[in-house]
Amino acid sequence: MKMDLRPAAAVSRRDAWREKREAALQRQGSPLGGGVLYLQHVTVSFDGFKALDDLTLHVDPGELLCVIGPNGAGKTTMMDVITGKTRPDEGTVWFGNQINLLALSEPEIVQIGIGRKFQKPTVFDFLTVFENLELALAGDKSFWHTFAARLTRADRERIDAVLETTGLEAKRDAPAGALAHGQKQWLEIGMLLMQEPKLLLVDEPVAGMTPQETERTGELLLSLAGRHSVVVVEHDMEFVRSIANRVAVLHEGRVLAEGSMDDVQEDPRVIEVYLGA
Ligand SMILES: Nc1ncnc2c1ncn2[C@@H]1O[C@H](COP(=O)(O)OP(=O)(O)O)[C@@H](O)[C@H]1O
Ligand SMILES: [Mg+2]
User: Fold this and answer.
1) What is the CATH number of domain 6-33+62-84+105-113+197-277?
2) For ligand 1, what atom is nearest to the CA of residue 73?
3) Which atom of ligand 1 is least distant from the CA of 250?
């Protein structure tokens, strides 16, 4: 049995995305080079309830991995564990094969190259797009220190590159507060990119976006693959189908199925979870 979770309109758009997905795959490093992230047998309990239950998952270098799953599956908790916000009761979390993430604080985890985008943008509305990126470049330096110091040529080039990646060149001198919802989300991704993270975690990037914004976000995330590893958690199935090369389906705190979108959609256990929800 094959269940089709797609609306009819999505089918015709699939081929347009194939090229973009394949290009992203081409840029991805060989998995034999060693993974970027390994979660092994991770369990997180809240008052006896297991939000994560023996979760094992890996991310390859340069990969764009999509994580889907019904509400309460543990997706956000998984992000919290990777970023050090929540400590697991059991299991191991490795960044590459050298760094034990469970031994690091949240700021240290940011420092070694793991960036996380939250749903609610945290840009400064009264600063321009350029200034927001400038601030992100400075990292933990103080606000006033940042704007008192002169940008080097390399800094400017980096900001310009991120403006181009995020498609915000025309908005560089606009106050962030004047941006549309989607543009604000892209600016926030841009701010994360200023720190050149090895791994980028993105929770529900297209929530509240128009179809055009959703499409542009898909292109942006795919364009990051190869240069960064990206983990996208998303509810929007049509969106995931557009951008995903590998999908992991989370359910009750563990991986229920893993593979291409076609593979996981044909999996009877996945069908049951989505129909039963
Ligand atoms: N701080 C917490 N205290 C108690 N229960 C929590 C906490 N955080 C998450 N949970 C529970 O853990 C489960 C997984 O939540 P979450 O990771 O947010 O799922 P998802 O992001 O997949 O919707 C849910 O049942 C949620 O209610
Ligand atoms: Mg969530």
Assistant:
1) 3.40.50.300
2) 22
3) 22
